[in-house]
Each structure stands twice: as structure tokens, then as C-alpha cells.
Amino acid sequence: MPVSATLAANDTIARRRAAGLPVVPLGFGEAGLPVHPLLAAALADAAGHGSYGPVAGIPALLDAAAGYWSRRGLPTEPSQVVAGPGSKPLLWAILGTCRGGVVLPKPSWVSYAAQAAMHGRDIVRIRSIGGVPDPAELDAVASGLRLSTVIVTLPDNPTGLLAPPSVIRDLCAVAERHDLLIISDEIYRDLTVGDFLSPASVSPDRVVVTSGLSKSLALGGWRLGIARFPDASLRSQVIDLASEVWSAPAHPVQVAASLALSEPPALVEHVARSRLLHHRVASAVASAFGCPPPDGAFYLYPRVAGFSDDQAVADHLLSRNGVVVLPGSSFGDDPEACRIRVATSQLYGSTDVQREQALDSDDPVALPWIAEQLDLIREALR
């Protein structure tokens, strides 16, 4: 199995920068913003905690996560929550507890299919509607296949689109008919500008929700994810698996995450500014590509005509212009569709000072370092 396409893109960016080559970093979906001082201080204050702690997470973190979801209309008890070293390991553990085929949107985030394959699960791809497999198509094929799990991403990576509430309700109805577990990856929820409905609000007894700190608070390197379980049995199985794989998330990070998920006003305001910055810059890049702006997060999924396949598009942009993007086929799409995944979240500056200025600006796309990157993208497309 090769290295994840998104992480490989990040390596490409780093190599080009180290070699002094031009690079426009549109390949890796890192949130690209400074750590908030409140969280940095909380992590530093907790640095003396060297103990393992409970496998599921420290009580303060489970309580804070329960409050986080409850404030979003998903009443949650701490006993429903598990924390892990990132949402990716939690997704892997959840998939490891189930049997039967896994249904993915087409396209969908690169790691879903890879993780399902690691567990020996059959994979069925169905046309995506904003990160959700088309419920009508799913209903048509579910009776003839041994399926158990559907994964959705709200809002979506790679397309940046958000399934409307009507599609969510239809999906839940199909899942009820065919007794399917829904895993709802909502790590971009707080960066959404559209009308958000979680499947857990519709079918609370068959939906696992995953989230984390890597996107809304730009803490990807801290590796902290959370999952909300509908029943004790599935949660217990994941805890058992976690006990043999990661033992417990890093204790100081859990302390800082407890603060983050309790959502003090300063962090709420920080996330709101981040959401606005992501949307403004992504919308400007979308205009350059001639595609709609995202409903959330910082991804675009344009089609680039005139090439044999999507890899040819990505290779051309990189070799001729230093623009790093990912081909849609990395996300399970048809290569001949010539779609590419564009991540705009690393355009905010090369230093924390520039990134803070981008957060504070009423017109971030006019800042010289962002405007320069936008000009490079437009020139590459010309």
C-alpha cells in the first residue's frame, strides 16, 4: 500500500521548498493557521502529566466532548464518547469492529478505502451528493450485497460541498431499511457555511459521529480525535481495540482539548474568523478555476479539460507551474473525469505573523502574499 496521497502531496511541497523551487501548495488539507495562545498555554501547563490515563480519554475531555455535541443538538453523555490520537485512528478502529461491505461516496477522502482494505472489507462506491452516497442508488444495490457500513463526510472532502438536509433524511431512511451503520465524519462541521444536518439527529441509534481539532482549530499535529457512539457495545469494542493499539491519547493534549471543546468565547470567535478566512480565500480560488465556492472547509473539485486523465492535469500543473494538486482518482473518481482536488488552506502565509494578519483582515485576498499566490494560480490556468 503506498503512502496516503494527501501526505505524499505534503512531502512534495516540502521537497520543492527545500530545493528552492516555486510551489503553490494546493495539495494538502492542513488548516494552515497559528495555534491559539489559550490552547498553547493549556498544553504547556499540562506538560507535567506523563501518565497514560484511561483508554477512552480523561473524564474532563469526555465531558467537554459531550457538551460540544449537546450544544449542536445532539444530546450526548460522556459515556458515549471515545477520544483517540486523531480522528483517523478512530475511524480505523470503528471499521475494524464491523463486518460486511463498506459504502463510500464517489469521490471520497483517500483514507476511507485504504482503511477498509486493511480490514479486508469489500468497498462499494456510489455517486456522491455532497459527501453522501446517493440514497436512491444505495437503496437499489443494498439488497443484493452484503453491506454493513456507510461513510459520509459533512461537508465533503474532496468536493467541498455539503449534502442538503433532504439527502441526509433519505440516506437515514435507506440505512433503516437495510440495517446499515452510518459513520458521519464531521470534522469540518464548524467550518460550514451551509445548512448542516447531522445524520445522528435523524437516526440517533445507528450513527457514529467523528470529529477532532485538526481543522477548525488547526491542531493537526496534536493528534486528537473524538467519536460519539450510539450504543455501549460498539463503543466497548473500539475501546478494546484501542487498548491494544494506542493505549491512550497524549495526556497534555487531552487537557488542552478539554479546554477547546468547552468552547470559551475567545475560541468561538477564533473559529468564526477562521471559517470566514477559509471561505473568502477558497471562493477567490474557485473564481480562478471557474467552479462554485465550497459549502464548507477549504476544498474545491474543478474539472480541467484538455487532458487525457486527471494525473496528466496534476503532473502538468506541477512541472510547468509548481502548483501542487491531487488527481480525483486518488479519491476513487474516474481518471478520465479530469477532476482535481484543490486545497486552499495553505495560502495564508509562510509565517505566523502573516497568518494572523490574514485572520484579522477584512479583505485577505488583497494581502500581498495571498494575492501573489492567486496570480500564480491564474497564470498556471492560462
UniProtKB/TrEMBL annotation:
<dbReference type="InterPro" id="IPR015422">
    <property type="entry name" value="PyrdxlP-dep_Trfase_small"/>
</dbReference>
<comment type="similarity">
    <text>Belongs to the class-I pyridoxal-phosphate-dependent aminotransferase family.</text>
</comment>
<dbReference type="InterPro" id="IPR004838">
    <property type="entry name" value="NHTrfase_class1_PyrdxlP-BS"/>
</dbReference>
<dbReference type="InterPro" id="IPR015424">
    <property type="entry name" value="PyrdxlP-dep_Trfase"/>
</dbReference>
<dbReference type="GO" id="GO:0008483">
    <property type="term" value="F:transaminase activity"/>
</dbReference>
<keyword id="KW-0032">Aminotransferase</keyword>
<feature type="domain" description="Aminotransferase class I/classII large">
    <location>
        <begin position="44"/>
        <end position="344"/>
    </location>
</feature>
<protein>
    <recommendedName>
        <fullName>Aminotransferase</fullName>
        <ecNumber>2.6.1.-</ecNumber>
    </recommendedName>
</protein>
<dbReference type="InterPro" id="IPR015421">
    <property type="entry name" value="PyrdxlP-dep_Trfase_major"/>
</dbReference>
<dbReference type="Pfam" id="PF00155">
    <property type="entry name" value="Aminotran_1_2"/>
</dbReference>
<dbReference type="InterPro" id="IPR050596">
    <property type="entry name" value="AspAT/PAT-like"/>
</dbReference>
<dbReference type="InterPro" id="IPR004839">
    <property type="entry name" value="Aminotransferase_I/II_large"/>
</dbReference>
<keyword id="KW-0808">Transferase</keyword>
<keyword id="KW-0663">Pyridoxal phosphate</keyword>
